[in-house]
Amino acid sequence: MAFINYLIHLAILVGIYSILTVSLNLAVGFTGLLNLGHVGFFGIGAYASALLSMYGVPVWASIILGGFAGMVAGILLALPTTRLKGDYLALATLGFAFIMGSVARNWTDVTRGALGIPGIPKIVRGNTEFLVVVLIIAIITYFIFWKISRSRFGKTCEAIRDDELAAKMLGKDTFMHKIAALGISAFFAGIGGALFAHYITFIDPSIFGLGDLILLFSMLIVGGLASVKGSAIGTIIIFLLPEPLRFIGFPSSILGPMREIIFALILLLILIYRPKGILGKVDLA
Amino acid sequence: MSIATQLILNGIIAGAIYALVASGFSLIYSVTKFMHFAHGAVLALGAYLMYTFAVGIGLNFWLAILLTLICSSFAGVLMDWLVYRPLRKRKASGAVLLIASIALMILVNSLILAFWGADVKTVPVRNPVFDVLGARVTLIQVIIIIVSVVLLLALWFLMKRTKLGKAMRAVADNKDVAMTVGINPERIYTYTFAIGSFLAGVAGILIGIEQNLYPIMGLSLIIKGFTGAVIGSLASVPGSVLGSLILGLVENIGIWWLPSGYKDAIAFVLLFIFLLFRPSGLLGVKVREA
User: Could you tell me which CATH number the domain at A2-273 has?
Assistant: First the structure.
């Protein structure tokens, strides 16, 4: 029974993280925006939904509002930064994630700072029911991103990634496309964060950490850029890979760093030896 | 009055610390043209090695410093050989190198956490306190300021007056042309990582003694280091030192008005302003197109 509960727990986390990875792929893989601030949207969604639901907003509504909070942050971040190129965009979005972490740590009246927010209400009583909820939302998310990837909008995003000037010459409003791509991507990151908060029922500023960023990029690149299916597969592989360590019997003080070491090593190896991942269509620009 | 002096002095000390971090980071950036975030991890590794050599094994203080500097230089070179060189060989973009460097950073941080544990460590040294114009300053802080000035001068001499420095600048300017005149860029990259990581080692030792050791110290320091570098100019060592000094002063004078927890937020806001309005920094001339 304990083992089944553990499998359900893993499946829920895989579901939540696959929403994050698939949405990150729209910005990084399809549109070519090297966004290192995805954990920022994730955290904003988590905090927004947690706080709203504790002030009496129904949980399903707070999750959607969490998504919108992420989207607003995404659009606000995109407005000034999408004109930056490569490394500078990466730095600015990374800085954004750090600022959000700093706000969460210091705005103690609202976020309780480093103490975190305990006792976040659950959506449904049991984990099995929650797994069903997560799976439904994850499947809707894949479907939406699959549709986007085949739509005129998605194709234009790919054109921007490959040659922005050419897309402009064809009369495409590349600026609006980039904003929309980051906004949609951030919306789903916010939803993912909200689901995470209502599942774990506790969040603290460490949610904005770099560890999760590396985890997301491992999943994204192992699965492959610009492939919706790849992101889902990448999430499952990366998430399950370090799990056997749990049964070898390492103490938990070693287990945490060990997971991060494995994620970082996988990411480095795949960048060096198979940069397109399993199903990827393009290299990181 | 003495509070104002103290804040300014704290700003200069913080600026000197950030400059120690930023100088190596921007030296590596200026030659290799990518952001080596794992520089912060090399720094943290230096601090922990110093702890192990000086406190754990109990070696002579100066011998411990020497060993630490050799090890950190080697750690940086090893990162270049094992990760960055294969990536360069397959002509990976700056974005790939950036992600790889963040992965390296997390890798080394986690290794530190696994080997040395999460508890805060200190390197005990005698650290008398002086009084300067009504402000307090410790011996280590004075040494940090002196060392960062000396290192800056030495770096300037290296880059402008030595053959190696000229070769480094040639590779930075145009790798292909440098190759045609017989400079081996790979070898120059190795030297650059050795020197840059040596600086990280110096920074790690000094900061480890001045503050405490904790596994993610490298991360918080490299964030300040690259912010300082962006403010001054990513690709110029004097620029990054100037930017670090400005960052240290603004942060410390800023807490006159804001709660001290917002120090980091001040740094990021500065980073944002410069990235958006002057990405080449105060001393930079051109923005590199990605």
Answer: 1.10.3470
